[in-house]
Amino acid sequence: MEINFNKNLYSRQAIRRSIKTYRRLADFGFQEGKNYFKVSLKNAAPDIEGVIKDEFSNYVLSLIKFKQG
Amino acid sequence: MKQKINFKIEKKEKSIIFRLKPSIYPLETIYLTCYAFLDRAYLFLDGHPKKEIIVRLKGKESLSPRELEGLAGEFNNELLSAALRRKISQDNKKIREAVVLRALASAQIQSAAAPKQIIPKGYLLDDFLNIDVSRKKSGRKTGPRKNK
């Protein structure tokens, strides 16, 4: 399972921190492409396999910091 | 009048795809809106922050097409609300900063003007109100009263 995070919209720091938080739930891999951060997910527990991708993406989104007006 | 819709419902995936123009909804507004939906839906962003931002929204529970349409409407409402909050925040930025600056400056002036109260040695033991002197003048004995 692979998730591609757009480099213009997601931060490396948010993804790294999320992997650190989720590392006990699955085996994560991180690669940096030209336009995307590629996160691979393996060996997730069967009961969370269906939701871990989406939950992980939501968690990354929640960690993004941006400058508010 | 034909209404232009900014989203598409994917029935098979049970998700909604929004295509948003950053010129109308800036990236910060989209982030804020997404945060508001994090507990109810799965969100994923793609696209280009200056051309077009794509938001994929999927309900955490299985939603019917009608419910998805309702969720899309709520998302659009939240987008408008976040955009308005951002605009008000930007408009009031200078006033906010001025108020904080003034409050800080006045607090600094007050603390600088207040004399430093250094308690001299034995100050609390001294009879600084001259209570003992007035008692002596009136002829009353000092010291604790004796119970009769």
Detailed description of the structure:
The complex is a heterodimer of chains A (69) and B (148). By secondary structure, chain A is of the alpha+beta class. Chain A has one domain (2-63). Chain A has helices at residues 12-22, 52-63, and strands at residues 2-6, 27-32, 36-42. Chain A has a three-stranded antiparallel sheet, with helices on one face. The longest helix of chain A has 12 residues, at 52-63. The termini of chain A are far apart. Chain B has one domain (7-113): 2-Layer Sandwich (Alpha-Beta Plaits), CATH 3.30.70. In chain B, helix 1 (27-37) crosses helix 2. Chain B starts with 6 loop residues before the first strand and ends in a 10-residue tail after the last helix. The relative contact order of chain B is 0.11. Classes of the chains: A alpha+beta (69), B alpha+beta (148). The interface between A and B is medium-sized, with 15 and 21 residues.
Short account of what is shown:
Chain A: InterPro entries: HxsD-rel. Chain A is an alpha+beta fold.
How do the strands and helices of this protein lay out in sequence?
The complex is a heterodimer of chains A (69) and B (148).
Chain A: E1 2-6, H1 12-22, E2 27-32, E3 36-42, H2 52-63
Antiparallel strand pairs in A: 1-3, 2-3
Helix pairs in contact in A: 1-2
Chain B: E1 7-10, E2 15-20, H1 27-37, E3 41-48, E4 52-59, H2 65-91, H3 93-113, H4 131-138
Helix pairs in contact in B: 1-2
